[in-house]
Amino acid sequence: xxxAAAALxxxxxxxxAHASGRWGMRLLIATESSFFxxxxxxxxxxxxxxxxxxxxGPPSLTVAGPDTVILLSSSVTLWWAERGIARGAQxxxxxxxxxxxxxxxxxxxxxxxxxxxxxxxxxxxxxxxxYFTVTGFHGAHVVAGLLMNLVVQVWAWRGLFTRxxxxxxxxxxxxxxxVDAVWVVVFTSLYLVPRLA
Amino acid sequence: xxxxxxTSPAATAVSSQLSRARLAEIWETPxxxxxxxxxxxxxxxxxxxxxxxxxxxxxxxxEAVVMRAQLVHGDMHLLTPEAYNQLFTMHxxxxxFLFASPVLSGFSxxxxxxxxxxxxxxxxxxxxxxxxxxxLAGIFLYSSFLVGQAPDGGWFGYAPMTQRAYSxxxxxxxYALGLIYLGISTTVGAVNFIATFFTLRAPGMSLDRVPVxxxxxLTVSFLIVFFIxxxxxxxxxxxxxxxxxxxxxxxxxxxxxxxxxxxxxxxxHPWVYIVVLPAMGLASxxxxxxxxxxxxxxxxxxxxxxxxxxxxxxxxxxxMFATGLPPLAMSFFSGASMTIAIPSGVxxxxxxxxxxxxxxxFKVPFLFMIGFIxxxxxxxxxxxxxxxVPFDWQLTDTYFVVAHLHYVLLGINVxxxxxALYYWMPKxxxxxxxxxxxxxxxxxxFAGMNLAFFPMHITGMLxxxxxxxxxxxxxxxxxxxxxTTVGAVxxxxxxxxxxxDLVRSxxxxxxxxxxxxxxxTLEWSTTSPxxxxxxxxxxxxxxxxxxxxxxIPEGARSIVGRGPVLDDGRxxxxxSPLDADPVAVLHMPPDSSWPxxxxxxxxxxxxxxxxxxxxxxxxxxLLVFICLVGWLTPSRPSRGAGED
Amino acid sequence: xxxxxxPVESQPSMFHAGGPAAxxxxxxxxxxxxxxxxxxxxxxxxxxxxxxxxxxxxxxGVGPFEDPRGPLRWIVTGGVIxxxxxxxxxxxxxxxxxxxxxxxxxxxxxxxxxxxHRWWWEVRYPGIAGAAEVVTxxxxxxxxxxxxxxxxxxxxxxHSFWVPELAGKTDVIPGxxxxxxxxxxxxxxxxxxxxxxxxxxxxxxxxVVVADAPADFASWAAGQRLPAGAPAEPxxxxxxxxxxxxxxxxxxxxxxxxxxxxxxxxxxHVASRTTLASAMLPNNRGNLAGWVTNAQxxxxxxxxxxxxxxxxxxxxxxxxLEALR
Lengths: 197, 644, 325
What we know:
CATH superfamily of the domain at 110-214 in chain C: Cupredoxins -  blue copper proteins
Oligomer: heterotrimer
Structural class of chain C: alpha+beta
Radius of gyration of chain C: 27 Å
Number of strands of chain B: 2
Shape of chain C: elongated
Strand content of chain C: 15-25%
Largest sheet of chain B: 2 strands, antiparallel
């Protein structure tokens, strides 16, 4: 019957659904968030049974504090870049991606330096194991985000994104914001909560 | 030619020979080697899952038969304790991880697009990836046998026995890495199911019209997304403790063995629902066909499925009642564990009501459903028996629990699976299986199963502990163990007979036709086997049982056999999440080798971690990165729309 | 050396309760078992009745589609209301039992410290009022009708302490001390097992709990506190030499001889124990000899090595060990 066909006056989406890709990224974020939740569960579980946790007092905020500001700024710059391509602004996209990359790279570099200054190692105690594992996995996610950023920059420079077609940018941006949100939780748990007790 | 921008899709009223030929050309995977390695056809992937899972089922079964030979009598010396411990560990790992969940993924992969009136899953290449990683993770785990160091810490791998000090070999490294690797497969598969559920149902297939298998698989897909990471974290900690010198489970240095148990069971309890809820969905879709009436209480059953998933996420502590937890916590988890019986009771009542108010037809798939209901009840009640804390203190870690877990796993996973194989094999292969042989298969499996596992209730209550490679004669356990071993052999005979029937019917079984069972759901509206494009025209659905609507005097009428053809490339219809209103025509990706290549790159990573080679891990990670980039690189837009 | 036969008469059945804890648990167990059986019988009966009601051989014809009330009544009654009521009753029984067995009927009269090893049980009774400690292995004595506290620690991996006829099991976990009370109301010997997979010889990690009349318990404890006496006969004396010379002294302590190795079971009063090798073998001359010279074929993978001794040395050693009452 012709009514069925006529009723289906719907748009044609050339990619395998902007909507599907978004679902995919959201669910990836859900599962990765769970991963971090279990890491932090472990941190608090072992901490609840320890006489002192962290054993040597709260970790210093000297590096981690500014580092947090740097990482959160990178979310702002990426948001700015994404708004740009949503209006078709190619230059803004490319610039924003680049600045975000630099900020993220600085975050990693500072964190590596902070690690090198620690008086304990993952092998020293369970606290050491957890500190380095939690911040390490977060750092690995940041590195993955930086690699994603590089690849998206290459695609952007090749002109593959348009106002109507930039799902990959949006999904990569969502991932980056997630990584920053995880840092807020990690930072609070490892650096701020010990100062509350 | 794929136009960009908005357009109304060309819609033919009825499919024609010409359009079907065109669709076949668009969707068909060539039968050469490249086609085999790059296919993203959900039906192919589904069948591969089923075959591979079945191979693991046979391997796990052989492991069990050898174990039962060792236990047929007290004080036997057929196996060394080391060999026995590897066998019982791998039996558990194989059945629980390499069979029970993948076989259900196989059915879901095969059936979902056909049942929802779509041409593929939301992420066809991710689908292929989930299969290849499953296969390779299984091979990774079994490669441990080649070096004689199969995992031997139990499928549950309790620390600190799994730490390097007590397990110096590679056994537990295979275990930890294998589970992490398998978790990738399971997770990406779950993501695919959730996205498919909310974007690809046929127009008009609102939430209250989906087959129950969709509710089952959707629920467990969410459980997978949220709870597999607990196992990943636990396994990662285990690998790090063993190879990097960390102290997560090491009590002497601030760690604790119970951290493993919490993480493992936070994953492990939802996992048992992951391996049964889709199978219950299969049963809910099969039973109506053989009762010649709709499922009674569909809404109750859908809600019970979700409720089981939710409640089941919060009861993990009942695996740890003997560890010395605070009494208040134990009481809470004890009560919560009992409440699981309520959604289970709802489902059982629904099936019983469907049968009572229906007109049963005793074909082989239905026999398996009857067996399933009986075994479900037994497994459910003996589970409730372990819920009260004080009684669990006697029952836990004995053969009683072995009885319980086999009643629920065989009863609620294997029996529905075999019923589903008899039911949907005609659709998959185009040929019927044998009613006569099928009856024998059912009765051998049902009798064998009960002979094998019922006596374990007794031995458990008479004090026989689990995971023992031998036991003293004269404890009152000998007769029961003998009966169990006999039952295992009878059950194995049933499975063997099934294989005989399968091979026979694939070659000379009678042709099935589109709908041999006069069943009501959409997969039966297309050919057996379905064409590569599933449906020549995409249907619009107006009820839960589209193919039975003609028997209802005034009822909704779905539109099957007329509708959009969408033959301008690989296309299907995207719809809204709740009401399935059409939203967009979606272009699906063609066959691709990237999923296999990515899976191979991951294999490099995992073997590198096994060897504790950071260099090769880096190489593998680089390969993974290259594959991801290759996979995700978009094609050029044809027109430079919207540039500044 | 005789084949492995059951060393203890009792069968470790959880329904063969020998003490108040197991008694209460068994009662709860009967409640749940009866409910389970009843539910199964009813459900299967309904299923069979449903299957027989209207058999149809044809696949033609479909329906009924209506009748929302009939089936829904089933589901609500049979699936929600009945299970909820039954489970609520069961849960109340559970809570009552849990609180009833949380503490022993009367205060404990002794505290026993049990250390689980791979694959044997170290048993210590702390010395009271300056008296020496009781140290033994794989055998626990308790006075009938009295409660004792058992403190459980692990030397290595997770084990589980379980005497089915007396109480539920309690896991033994490295890094924490778990505690439980034990009481037997009937004299006799009760078999215990390790109930948590702990490695290759998890299957052979049993122990015995002996419930003595109070006077017998007192004399047993007094005897166990004493160090080993000097060997009375020359044969036994030669045996002590063999003990020192061979690798025995590297692992096994015998108080009073100066041999104090802590790795294996304390042998000061080994002959007073009714079993050997973690309740695997009855304790007699033949099994003693067999265990010493053949441990790895009896309990492969255990820490007890196979000791090579010539006939004369073996006889002497066994004579010495048999004198260690």
